[in-house]
Amino acid sequence: MTSLWLDEAAPFAASRPLPARTDVAIVGGGIAGVSVALHLARAGLHAAVLERGTIGCRATGRNDGQLLLGLGEHYHRVHGQFGAERARLLWDFLRENHEALRAELAGRGIACDLQTRGGLRLAETEHEWTELREAAALLASEGKPHELVPAGALGRRLPAAAGFHGALFLPGEAIVEPVAMVRGLAATAVRSGAVVAEHAEVAAIDGEAGEFTLRLADGRRLAAALVVHCTSALARELDGSGLLARTVFPFRGQVLASAPLPDAVAAKFPPCAMSSNFCYEYFRVHRGRLLIGGKRWSVPGEEVGILDDGAQNPQVTQNLLAYVREHFPDLRGTAFPRVWTGIMAGTPDGLPLLGALPGRAGTYVLGAFNGYGLSFAFLGGRCLAEMLVEGRSTHPAVALFAPRRCTAE
Ligand SMILES: Cc1cc2nc3c(=O)[nH]c(=O)nc-3n(C[C@H](O)[C@H](O)[C@H](O)COP(=O)(O)OP(=O)(O)OC[C@H]3O[C@@H](n4cnc5c(N)ncnc54)[C@H](O)[C@@H]3O)c2cc1C
Q1: Does the beta carbon of 63 lie inside 6 Å of ligand 1?
Q2: Ligand 1: which of 372, 378, 379 to mutate, most ligand atoms within 8 Å of CB?
Q3: Nearest Cα to 12, choosing from 36, 35, 32, 34?
């Protein structure tokens, strides 16, 4: 079953035929590939996106549409994992990504139901509430906007909820309709001079920097000076450096969408990003339906290593429905007729890949967002474009994402 977003969104109408040659060939037309193309075109380079299916047809069109801070982690955990300085860089990168993306969407009039009403991180247990307070203390010490919502005050923020132990509200988070967003960005890229080709599956990449040849599955060819891999975990074999195959692993997420809720029930959910259990479960309302995902941790194997987004895991569905019954009493008995899955890409350290692929000159990657690409890729695309145009990105966070970190054994 396909996602609600892919069913609802208008087709991408600005697809252009491939030229024989381009400066930069970008493989993959999700949020990563489209963002790179847009920024390269603006900088005056000839960029061509080659997308196997339609724009946004894979993870970008199958997610929950939440623009989050902290790559989904509570802030004290980001500090714990990366240290204070890198945690601040990472948080600021994501905040800047949201600001730049919002400005782009507003500036180009891209209609994608962007709602900038923040995000609620709900505590599933008393322990998580303790952790949320730790996160809040750190955010306060760094002057980052947030608000702690004790359990007794949750009824005002999220009247539909039961059984949560409090929440952390982050005003900088947002929700969006992801397919309309990425197709709007792709149309903007085309207007800026990029070529965006759908139904253009890359089968192999031959040659070397300055003289690559991309061979398409249907026999077409494209010559390019540089290549950017934006295929998430879906075409790791195309990377001649071998780094993507060695480092990036796929995992599958699953989302359920309810039948339209009565207005009075839908109104009990605020129009914002919501999650609990350290962001493992996430939900939001879209046009009167509840969209909820997560629970992959609750099944054997945690859906890691799976590349099939044409199938679903019935046990994940059952466990998500149990979560709905537990936390949203008004929805007991509500049907969830639509279920879909999407493939995300992970790295061992949980950080994305942005930059040159070591060992294969002229090739680059933007991807492996560990489940948070909407929250990262727009600014990521700008930084990568700077690298290609200027030779380096001046953004202080990009060293965190350098693919060469994955070569140190
Ligand atoms: C269930 C779920 C919920 C999520 N929720 C959120 C969320 O709320 N917030 C958030 O920030 N992120 C979320 N994510 C993650 C987010 O969707 C991804 O991180 C992001 O969309 C990845 O974008 P991408 O462009 O790297 O990959 P994709 O969107 O997967 O794009 C890769 C593209 O490459 C194309 N491709 C593959 N092979 C080839 C080839 N050989 N030739 C040409 N093209 C090829 C594919 O067709 C595809 O379109 C979620 C993901 C899932 C699955």
Answers
A1: yes
A2: 372
A3: 34
* 97 alpha-carbon distance from chain centroid: 12
**Are 131 and 90 within 8 A, CB to CB?**
no
Q: What is the pTM of this model?
A: 0.98
What is the Cα–Cα distance from 317 to 294, expressed in whole angstroms?
A: 9
Residue whose entry in the numeric block shows the structure tokens 């009039």: 109
384: left (phi over 0), alpha (psi -120 to 50) or beta: alpha
Q: Is 235 in the pocket of ligand 1 (CB under 6 A)?
A: yes
CA atoms within 13 Å, Cβ hemisphere of 248? 33
- Domains by residue range for the chain, with CATH: 4-62+179-248+349-407 (3.50.50.60), 119-171+249-346 (3.30.9.10)
| pLDDT tens-place string over residues 165-222 | 999 999 999 999 999 999 999 999 999 999 999 999 999 999 999 999 999 999 999 9
Is the minimum distance from the CB of 358 to ligand 1 under 6 angstroms?
A: no
The answer to whether residues 346 and 361 touch, using CB atoms and an 8 Å cutoff, is no
